[in-house]
């Protein structure tokens, strides 16, 4: 409506504008996941999946323990990283009762990088030397590098995710700001 007497003018100044991203399915870039980190997470998923698939094609093994450990870690890395990517890249993360996504993402990525590196190293040390085993190891080491790059990106861009907890623990509770004082009726 244009002009003075319409009800639309009254509500335009008082209603909150909706974020156009509210209707989007994917939220990249967002506070939880930048475009670069999203690409790295996709690489982690693809490399973990390739390591798992190529390892599954191996028909015989010298020491099957290392092969089975590699199989387990590559499968877990693929499935959980895919789940984490879906949660962080969509609105689903807000529907789960977790509030510390940066910490969870960092710790998960560090643990998987460590386990994938260990599994790939163990598989590299004890294998039959077939081309399939070598390909699986290469994908395993590449996935490990992708997880390490993800950790470095988090550290470079945001620092360690628990540094804010250290600041809160050292300084005690912060004094309420002026807005909070007005809302709660507190004064100094």
TrEMBL record:
PROSITE patterns in the cross-refs: MARVEL
Places the protein is found: Membrane
Entry annotated with the keyword Transmembrane helix: yes
Pfam families in the cross-refs: MARVEL
UniProt domain MARVEL: residue ranges: 32-159
Topology versus the membrane: Multi-pass membrane protein
GO cellular component: membrane
Domain of life: Eukaryota
Statement: the UniProt record of this protein carries the keyword Transferase: no
Membrane-spanning parts: 76-94, 106-129, 135-155
Region of interest (Disordered), residue spans: 169-188
Keywords: Membrane, Transmembrane, Transmembrane helix
Name by which UniProt lists this protein: MARVEL domain-containing protein
């Amino acid at each position: 409506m244009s002009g003075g007497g319409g009800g639309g003018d009254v509500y335009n100044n008082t209603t909150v504008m909706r974020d156009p991203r509210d209707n989007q399915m994917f939220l990249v870039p967002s506070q939880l996941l930048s475009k670069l980190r999203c690409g790295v997470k996709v690489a982690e998923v693809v490399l973990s999946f390739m390591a798992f698939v190529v390892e599954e094609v191996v028909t015989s093994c010298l020491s099957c323990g290392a092969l089975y450990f590699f199989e387990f870690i590559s499968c877990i890395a693929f499935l959980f990283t895919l789940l984490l990517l879906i949660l962080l890249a969509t609105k689903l993360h807000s529907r789960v009762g977790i509030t510390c996504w940066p910490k969870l993402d960092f710790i998960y990525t560090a643990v998987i990088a460590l386990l994938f590196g260990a599994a790939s190293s163990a598989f590299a040390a004890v294998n039959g030397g077939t081309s399939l085993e070598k390909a699986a190891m290469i994908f395993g080491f590449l996935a490990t590098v992708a997880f390490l790059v993800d950790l470095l990106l988090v550290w470079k861009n945001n620092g360690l995710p628990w540094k804010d907890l250290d600041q809160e623990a050292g300084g005690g509770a912060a004094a309420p700001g002026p807005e909070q004082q007005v809302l709660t009726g507190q004064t100094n």
